[in-house]
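Minutes, project huddle
Topic: does the predicted pose make sense with beta-D-galactopyranuronic acid bound?
PN asked that the exact inputs be recorded in the minutes so nobody has to dig through chat later. Recorded below.
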Amino acid sequence: MLHFSKLTAATFAFGSLLVGIANAETVLRSADTHPDGYPTVEAVKYMGELIKQRTDGRYSVEVYHSAQLGEEKDTIEQTQTGVIDLNRVSMGPFNGIVPETAVPSLPYMFRSVEQMRHVMDGPIGDEILKAFEAHDLIGLAFYDSGARSFYNTKKDIASITDMKGMKFRVIQSDVFVDMVNALGANATPMAYGEVYSALQTGVIDGAENNWPSFESAKHYEVAKHYTMDQHQIVPEVLVMAKASWDKLSPEDQAIVRQAAKDSVVKMRELWDAQEKKSRDIVEKAGVKVSEIDKQPLIDAMKPVYDKYLSTPALKDLATRIQATK
Ligand code: GTR
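Predicted holo structure (tokens), as shared on screen:
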């Protein structure tokens, strides 16, 4: 009897040790270049809450916003090596790593944000997410980034000829560099965090981005001319380190994937509201917004398309994107 109860006590102690281990919370570290409150940051936090609820607290997500873990190019490398678990990045810096990402990044590839959402929500989006796996990353979801347009410190741009010789900062991606050069301007690839001072000191004349980035990075304080050329509708992407993913059980992988998908809905709500808010802030601060005839810019992209749609598979991907309603 005594022996039996000892055993019971030991079993109980061992059992609670196991429960203790099972309850230990694993915190997944997630990188974002944007400040706290930005739609991407809030969407990943929301995803973290869903993961926490659905794993009974075994997993949670901590978002390191404001480039606390580094600039995008570096955080991508750190995610590939498993130093960072999760990363929310523009597709731009992936262009040289995952060739499929160059296609949705091509200027004027999408006709509208609505079409981009249809494409990325469907089988084409899944195919592109899958393409990350060959590069030690798990593609989880696409977020929105509106449309990117040029802005500068010098003058209103009303036609493509006004851009000639101007120096524009771009994302560290050859697609972006080639786009600016094909417009007759000069591209300066540079980390996002360096753009404000480069605008201020005149190292560059301008840059290009959507309303929320233009506003939250405060570039509008120094660049007062915004041109509505809307050259790129580049989706953002949320990736996980393959090393971190492989540590999850298949059930937990399914929870993470679903939570990421669920956070897209939240992201889009936040995004649509933020775009309006940001545009309002910059216009009130005196930014002059000018319209431009987009056709000459579209026509100038022919060599860029030829360069990046270099294989039948990539050409086919572009054709399928363009055929999506
Ligand atoms: C923003 C994007 C960021 C970053 C930035 C940039 O629109 O959300 O992830 O890529 O652009 O221009 O570097």
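Observations noted during the meeting:
- The chain has a mean pLDDT of 94.
- The chain has two domains: 23-145+235-276, 148-233+278-323.
No decisions taken; revisit at the next huddle.
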